[in-house]
TrEMBL record:
Natural source organism: Arabidopsis lyrata subsp. lyrata (Lyre-leaved rock-cress)
Domain MATH: 1-125, 145-272
Highest taxon, organism lineage: Eukaryota
CDD domains per record: MATH
One Pfam family hit: MATH_2
Source lineage: Eukaryota, Viridiplantae, Streptophyta, Embryophyta, Tracheophyta
Name of the protein described by the UniProt record: MATH domain-containing protein
InterPro entries in alphabetical order: MATH/TRAF_dom (IPR002083), TRAF-like (IPR008974)
Length: 284
């Protein structure tokens, strides 16, 4: 694949006069102006990068290679790569493109690759570090002890507080808590209810956590409970919350005949129907 870019290669750039072979102290850019025939480069220009310092402690070096030829006509570099990872080792120290460019195209001065008897070629070598661990995310449906019930007594006494918080509880590999705004977060006067993700358990991987929640305001006189569902990806930051900003209007909540506020108490439930847990494993 050939593309164009104005910037030259970051690893190595050289002007070849007479198209000679160029060597570096530990890497070598090898240019075959008549093609590397033994690897299928007949009628093509071939170019290779050699790495000699693959030691015993490094059984293999994985790299991506980009080769460059400067085009004097358009003042840009033609960039060539085949999109595959190259595996350097003690047995295989040379990789490249046997058919980088047709020889007839390269030799034609109208195409701009040659300036007199010289050309400019280069290479970018990107060393790919081996993957140490794989992050595995598991989604658990109905995890153990996934329901939390919060009875708030003396509800009328917390009306002046903007937020009121439950105790923390554990589901999956993280602690959680409920948070309410008794008079609402918006202009509409309503009970706001949220679930916040808190600290991780010891040895848990601190990563974003997906949760599917069921929030419920219990009707203490009949089964006419108010129930809402929430889906949210919680960040790694503690106190990230999601929920319902208008679960019930303040007027309906304070109307004891409706059954949600009884003896100055309300009961809220949250059930984590699904949570994700992240762990590091050696392979997928």
């Amino acid at each position: 694949m050939e593309t164009l870019r104005e910037q030259g290669p970051s690893s190595y750039l050289v002007k070849l006069v007479g198209f000679s072979e160029v060597r570096l102290s530990h890497e070598r850019l090898i240019f075959y102006p008549a093609g590397k025939v033994e690897e299928g480069g007949k009628d093509h220009v071939s170019i290779y990068a050699r790495i000699d310092n693959v030691g015993a402690s490094e059984m293999q070096i994985d790299v991506e290679l980009k080769f460059f030829i400067y085009n004097h006509n358009i003042k840009k570099y033609s960039v060539f790569q085949d999109g595959t990872m190259k595996h350097y080792s003690k047995e295989k120290k040379e990789w490249g493109l046997a058919q980088m460019l047709l020889l007839s195209k390269f030799n034609d001065p109208k195409n701009g690759y040659i300036d007199g008897n010289a050309c400019i070629v280069g290479v970018e070598i990107f060393v790919i570090k081996p993957r140490e661990k794989v992050e595995r995310v598991a989604f658990t449906q109905n995890p153990p002890e996934n329901k939390f019930t919060w009875k708030i007594s003396h509800f009328s006494e917390i009306g002046d507080k903007r937020y009121y918080y439950s105790d923390e509880f554990v589901v999956g590999d993280r602690k959680w808590r409920m948070k309410i705004s008794p008079k609402g977060d918006k202009k509409v006067r309503a009970l706001s209810v949220y679930v916040q993700a808190m600290a991780y358990l010891p040895n848990a991987v601190a990563s974003s956590t997906y949760a599917k929640l069921k929030l419920r305001l219990i009707n203490q006189k009949n089964s006419n409970h108010i129930e809402k569902r929430v889906f949210h990806f919680y960040s790694r930051e503690t106190q990230d919350g999601s929920g319902i900003s208008e679960l019930i209007s303040v007027e309906d909540l304070n109307d004891e005949s409706k059954g949600y506020l009884v003896e100055d108490s309300i009961i809220l439930e949250t059930t984590l129907l699904c949570v994700s847990e992240t762990m590091f494993v050696d392979s997928i």
